[in-house]
Amino acid sequence: MTPLVDVMLVLLVIFMVTAPFMVSAVRVALPQAEAERAPPPRAPLVVHIDKVGQVFIQDRAVDPAQLRAELTQAASAAPDTEIQLRADAAVPYGRVAEFMALAQAAGLSRIGFVTDAAPPSLP
Questions:
Q1: Contact at 8 Å (CB) between 87 and 96?
Q2: Topology, domain 45-113
Q3: DSSP state, 20?
Q4: Do residues 79 and 107 make contact, with C-beta atoms less than 8 angstroms apart?
Q5: Nearest-CA neighbor of 89 among 58, 57, 48?
Q6: Please, are residues 64 and 103 in contact by the beta-carbon 8 Å criterion?
Q7: Per-residue pLDDT reduced to its tens digit, 78-123
Q8: Considering the chain, what is the average pLDDT of its residues?
Q9: Is the pTM of this model over 0.70?
């Protein structure tokens, strides 16, 4: 047992002596430049489709003509606008596909599907 303690103390001393040499930092003088700040990220367009197929934009019910106009307006303002689609689980896939086609025809191609986290499964 005593030789093991001696070896551990020697290793401890070695690590204490060599640790300051292991920390090495390269000192670099970085250039300074003036650049414009990046614009803040654009707020996404939140679209809900409830279980009966009614479409809501930013919690406001819209009919198909208004939906087309809103999507076209959003695309003309910023073509990289992201749509966050929150479709009810009972909505048929065809209705979601129709909305995606309408958004793409309006010029919006960034669509994110928002879901709820699944409850943890029991072991």
A1: yes
A2: Nucleotidyltransferase; domain 5 (3.30.420)
A3: H
A4: yes
A5: 48
A6: no
A7: 888 999 999 999 999 999 999 999 999 999 999 999 988 777 776 6
A8: 87
A9: no
CA distance 107 to 37: 27
Q: Work out the burial of residue 83: count CB atoms within 10 Å of its CB; fewer than 13 is exposed, 13-18 middle, 19 or more buried.
A: buried
| Mean pLDDT value of segment 34-58 | 88
pLDDT attached to residue 21 = 74
Per-residue pLDDT at 61: 94
Structure tokens at 69: 């106009």
Q: Please state, in angstroms and rounded to a whole number, the distance separating the CA atoms of residues 120 and 64.
A: 38
- Decide if 74 contacts 108 (C-beta within 8 A): yes
Which positions ≥6 away from 85 have C-beta within 8 Å?
Answer: 47, 49, 96, 99, 111, 112, 113, 114
